[in-house]
Design brief:
By secondary structure, this protein is of the alpha/beta class. It is built from nine helices and twelve strands. The strands form three sheets. The protein has a seven-stranded parallel β-sheet. It has a three-stranded parallel β-sheet with strand order 1-4-5, with no helix packed on it. Strands 2-3 form a two-stranded antiparallel ribbon.
Length: about 300
């Protein structure tokens, strides 16, 4: 291990000649930067230039975009930042569910049309919520939905692991269809892996309740977007709040822009004024553990995709 007094921090901005940096033991990967209007991720080049790297910590929570890169580097440790964005994303989910139950979009349209019309609203306590994924984000979501009285079940890879308070049942991925049966809300918070890619398709959506809502704050690839558009046309779900897409930025010709019942946001559910502090605090703790030889937090398994 390198003692802290001997450590050197090198900031590599897009355009940096990474081959001239010198020996690199640890990479703290923040986010891709833009060069000449093109988004570039320096990590693949950095690893190619520096095969001696022993540990990479990424500021992102998901590693689906890094799994292939690290599958060829079994001796390089990869850790992620799960938990850093859990609070703002959980609040975003609650906001989507409230927006749906209180029919905020319709009320705003009535105001624009100067139409004074009462609408029948719902309470969150009436919702049967399915959490697809049960990691750090789902845990924060469940904490916030529990006081509203929501009934919650979940779907995760290993249902035998402990579940958060308020989650009454946990199904394996193979039980997704059963979990969705009669559900009022389906919240996607799972990592994108070979098991979860395209899992939210025609069969799962058909099991949802007629006035149901889908919220995706994870990865667009979890959803069969064609099946979602078809389901929306049949009213199952009635609404979809999408913060992630298969193609990002969402192409201007995507039918999702104008589909009835779809509410789009540009992958910003993680946004918070506290993000930089939490990200830095996590890496500082990781670096302390690395120097002292303690186990690192959030160690990823690239072969599993998370």
């Amino acid at each position: 291990m390198v003692p802290p007094s001997a450590a050197e921090l090198v900031v590599a901005e897009p355009g940096t000649d990474l081959g001239r940096v010198g020996r690199v033991d640890v990479i703290w990967r923040l986010f891709p930067g833009e060069v000449d209007g093109e988004v570039r991720d320096l990590l693949p080049t950095a690893l190619e230039c520096h095969p001696e790297v022993r540990w990479v910590h990424t500021a992102s929570a998901g590693i689906d975009h890094l799994a292939d890169l690290f599958s060829h580097r079994p001796t390089t440790i990869l850790t992620h930042s799960a938990g850093v964005t859990s609070i703002p994303i959980a609040e975003f989910v609650v906001g989507c569910l409230l927006h749906h139950c209180k029919r905020a979009a319709e009320l705003e349209e009535n105001q624009r049309q100067r139409r004074y019309q009462a609408l029948a609203l719902r309470e969150l306590a009436d919702l049967q919520v399915v959490l697809f994924g049960l990691g750090a984000i789902a845990t924060e979501v469940s904490k916030r939905l529990l006081p509203f009285g929501c009934r919650m079940t979940a779907v995760r890879r290993d249902p035998s692991r402990p579940s958060p308070k308020g989650v009454s049942a946990v199904y394996p991925f193979s039980g997704l269809i059963q979990a969705c049966r009669g559900a009022d809300a389906l919240v996607l918070v799972a990592p994108l892996t070979n098991e979860t890619a395209g899992a939210i398709g025609k069969e799962a959506l058909a099991e949802l309740a007629p006035e149901s809502v889908l919220v995706n704050v994870a990865r667009g690839g979890l959803i069969d977007e064609s099946a979602l558009l078809s389901g929306l046309s049949r009213g199952r779900p009635r609404a979809a709040y999408l913060d992630a897409f298969v193609d990002e930025p969402l192409p201007v010709n995507s039918p999702l822009w104008t589909a009835l019942g779809v509410h789009l946001t540009p992958h910003l559910s993680w946004s918070s004024p506290h993000l930089a502090r939490r990200t830095s605090q996590l890496f500082a703790e990781q670096l302390r553990r690395w120097v002292t030889g303690e186990p690192l937090l959030n160690r990823a398994d690239p072969s599993a995709g998370y």
